[in-house]
Design brief:
5-stranded antiparallel β-sheet; alpha+beta; single chain; Sulfite Oxidase, Chain A, domain 2; 2 domains; 43% helix; binds molybdenum atom; 5-stranded mixed β-sheet; binds the ligand Nc1nc2c(c(=O)[nH]1)N[C@H]1C(S)=C(S)[C@@H](COP(=O)(O)O)O[C@H]1N2; 15% strand; 370 residues
Amino acid sequence: MRLRLPRERDFTAPAHDVRVAARLGLALGVTFGLCFATGLLSHAGQHGSWWPTRPVDFYRITQGVHVLSGIVAVPLLLAKLWSVYPLLFARPVVRSVWHALERGSLFVLVAAAFFQLATGLFNSAQSYPWLFPFVPTHYAVAWVAIGALGIHIAAKLPKIRDGLGRALGRSAPGAGGLSRRGFLATTGFAAVAALVATAGATVPWLYRVSPLSWRAARGPQGLPINRTATAAGVARVGPDWRLTVSWPGGTRQLDRAELVALPQRTATLPIACVEGWSATATWTGVVVADLLGAVGAPTGRVEVESLERTGAYRTSVLLPGHVRDRLTLLALRINGTELSLDHGYPCRIIAATRPGVTQTKWVTGLRVRP
Ligand SMILES: Nc1nc2c(c(=O)[nH]1)N[C@H]1C(S)=C(S)[C@@H](COP(=O)(O)O)O[C@H]1N2
Ligand SMILES: [Mo]
């Protein structure tokens, strides 16, 4: 027997069909679109010059959609690739310059999509088994993926129309494998299972049914801890700790007793981590706007500094809108008890809609830039 490469027509399963591929493509287009849009929002929330302060759960929702749409895209992408992979064996390999470009962009799309989904999943598991910085790389490749997706959709528009326009129909008698309907139903089931299995990390009423909700599972003082004081290199905080508030023309140091003596506000606010988990706590502390007023500092943009000496999240910026917001607290207490060291003792920033990475713990300095 002579070995030969298969041909496209050798793949006879009914699900290798443009009607299946187009429907999966539509679902993937929606999930990738959601993932891209919410990814841009997350980028703006961390690096932008404006960010809304309401609704309080804004980032919790957009980042939940970001991570969950990425997770749902995994089974959809695998099913879509399986549906169309016989096209790899179509001959001739290249029919025209246009065809070569279209195939090349498809290669870029698949590579970029795998890269985004894999790095995103690793990030949500807080694992970084690579040497490049996650945030700028994930952000840059997102543009590559969305660009290649746009080209792919434009090139395939006639086929997409054709595939979506035709009913799934019945498979020919004797055709092997799952029917077109069966294949789509199985893929849909896998996508919903992936969603339910992970959504409990951020959707409270799924905590119980979601086996992978461990990230949001209760931690000490009723809230998970992402980075412990030990991991951040923050040792015991002694009585010599001071909060330094500075502004052009002035500086003021406060000890913890002075912070406790200022008027306190209690608010229920979520921490929404970029990794896709979120959890709500009740925080008590000083409204940052009141604190600035009490020491005679102007308002403006505030740079927050932590006791942590190294680490990407030792500083953050409070934009003017958040500095004015009365839900922006320098929290001293969580769920009715004093903040533990792991939760940011002696004080931490907690504000509405801020990405978790900017809810800075172990605060030591507030620098006002009017
Ligand atoms: N100084 C400092 N603050 C920090 C971090 C950090 O690494 N260093 N991690 C942030 C991240 S990523 C999140 S999600 C929240 C988590 O807060 P928690 O550990 O109190 O739950 O704290 C934020 N504050
Ligand atoms: Mo986080």
